[in-house]
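Backbone-to-sequence.
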């Protein structure tokens, strides 16, 4: 589909921005600066590109919010959504009702998920999927007569969503606003497997050993197998800074869970549906067989909201046991929404037919290699990531890894300098995060890396002028 500049004349950008400022409360809105800065209204999308209401075009290296997997503006999936909305826009999946797309998708997910993960709970997104996993495990343990087994362990810097429980499971210090409350009695956090920030002088294997020891110590401190219900982990930590744990770490954490009868919940909200080159990354990449996989985002490539918690036969045997008069009181009006399930089925079909994971495997490695070249810049501390999840970490001193002051908002400054050059990256304090559509090409990678380099250099010049950065080591222009 061709876009023309004319198609944007219908939008009154200033009015939109004012309406938005007056009436829309944004997720993670920063109250200090929002009244002045407002929001950027995005009006169109095609493939990896988005256009604002003034017709400016950007390469969206963020893929929406880790969710735009097959690319924007595809007519084939839009048609499936329209057809389903016309045929049956809604039917409940409560108690004993279902729809063809809901039943078909559940069976398809069971066939794609590893091992005995054969049972699907539908939700509205990733947060509610984690919330449902949490409640499912309560139900499971209570039915097993293990009412005391309720402690949950997750990790510092993890992100699991923003319901009360999902946010409490998450461990990102930046999200832990003192103006919110969090569940603290039953939810605990252990160290983040970020080797870049490991204690000075530690080898990688010593670092992993120390994390494993900390995990086991925490389990024992909480009362061991009788008291600890679950461990939540993203295979690669996303919003916490694209942390790819050292080799063997995920598997060894899983082995500890096996030892203490702790359910392993793999939060694949980001990592599934191709972002790491597989339907699900847990087993294929990390040799971890979870008890529950939670997913969302790429399951519909963001065309429409949907989340899932896919759980094992072992859990089902207990939870589904008849004869107790039990009712599984967990679910939402839109659980198993037929339009969302139809979109997911089409999305999966597109990924299969167009062999998108092959592209992820080839272009993903190239993306990482090319981004790595930015490490010659004096404020790039580390480029890290895997396949279509990548991140650049900025530091004030490469040697000490000291950060710029928070108020400089270095990630945002660089992202702001990239915007007018037609590139959107996701700023996160001292990071720029990228999770592009799975259709990104090597030429796109070249554009992203060159533009990011230019934006970083421009920012370095600004910082020098402001006296915030005094190194002369401008290594390349
Ligand atoms: C790993 C992970 N889990 C859960 C969520 C929450 O998903 P949602 O925003 O769809 O509720 C996210 C969102 O970014 C995520 O990255």
């Amino acid at each position: 589909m061709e876009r023309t500049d004319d198609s944007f004349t219908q939008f009154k950008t200033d009015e939109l921005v004012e309406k938005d400022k007056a009436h829309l409360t944004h997720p993670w809105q920063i109250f200090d600066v929002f009244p002045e800065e407002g929001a950027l209204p995005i009006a169109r999308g095609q493939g990896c590109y988005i256009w604002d209401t003034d017709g400016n075009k950007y390469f969206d290296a963020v893929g929406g919010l880790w969710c735009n997997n097959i690319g924007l503006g595809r007519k084939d999936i839009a048609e499936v959504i329209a057809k389903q909305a016309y045929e049956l826009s809604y039917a409940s999946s409560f108690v004993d009702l279902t729809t063809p797309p809901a039943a078909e998708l559940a069976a398809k997910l069971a066939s794609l998920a590893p091992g005995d993960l054969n049972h699907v709970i539908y939700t509205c997104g990733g947060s509610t999927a984690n919330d449902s996993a949490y409640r499912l495990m309560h139900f499971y343990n209570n039915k097993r007569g293990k009412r005391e087994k309720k402690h949950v362990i997750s990790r510092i810097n993890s992100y699991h969503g923003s319901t009360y429980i999902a946010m409490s499971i998450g461990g990102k210090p930046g999200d832990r606003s003192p103006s919110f409350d969090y569940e603290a009695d039953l939810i605990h956090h252990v160290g983040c497997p970020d080797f870049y920030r490991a204690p000075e002088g530690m080898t990688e294997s010593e670092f992993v050993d120390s994390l494993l020891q900390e995990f086991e110590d925490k389990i024992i401190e909480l009362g061991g197998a009788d008291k600890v219900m679950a461990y939540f982990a993203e295979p690669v930590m996303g919003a916490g800074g694209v942390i790819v744990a050292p080799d063997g770490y995920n598997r060894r954490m899983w082995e500890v869970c096996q030892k203490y009868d702790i359910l392993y919940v793999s939060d694949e909200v980001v990592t599934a549906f191709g972002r790491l080159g597989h339907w699900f990354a847990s087993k294929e990449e990390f040799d971890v067989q979870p008890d529950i996989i939670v997913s969302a985002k790429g399951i519909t490539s963001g065309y429409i909201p949907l989340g899932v918690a896919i759980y094992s036969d072992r859990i089902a045997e207990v939870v589904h046991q008849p004869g107790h008069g039990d009712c599984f009181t967990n679910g939402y009006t839109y659980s198993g929404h037929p339009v969302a399930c139809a979109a997911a089925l089409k999305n999966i079909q597109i990924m299969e037919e167009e062999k998108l994971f092959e592209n992820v495997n080839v272009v993903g490695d190239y993306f990482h290699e090319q981004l790595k070249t930015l490490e010659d810049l004096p404020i790039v501390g580390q480029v890290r990531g895997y396949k279509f999840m990548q991140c650049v970490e900025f530091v004030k001193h490469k040697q000490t890894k000291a950060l710029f002051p928070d108020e400089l908002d270095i990630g945002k400054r660089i992202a702001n300098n990239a915007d007018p050059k037609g590139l959107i990256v996701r700023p996160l304090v001292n990071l720029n995060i990228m999770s592009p559509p799975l259709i990104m090409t090597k030429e796109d990678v070249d554009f992203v890396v060159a533009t990011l380099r230019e934006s970083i250099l421009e920012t370095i010049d600004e910082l020098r002028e402001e006296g915030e950065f005094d190194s002369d080591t401008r290594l390349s222009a």
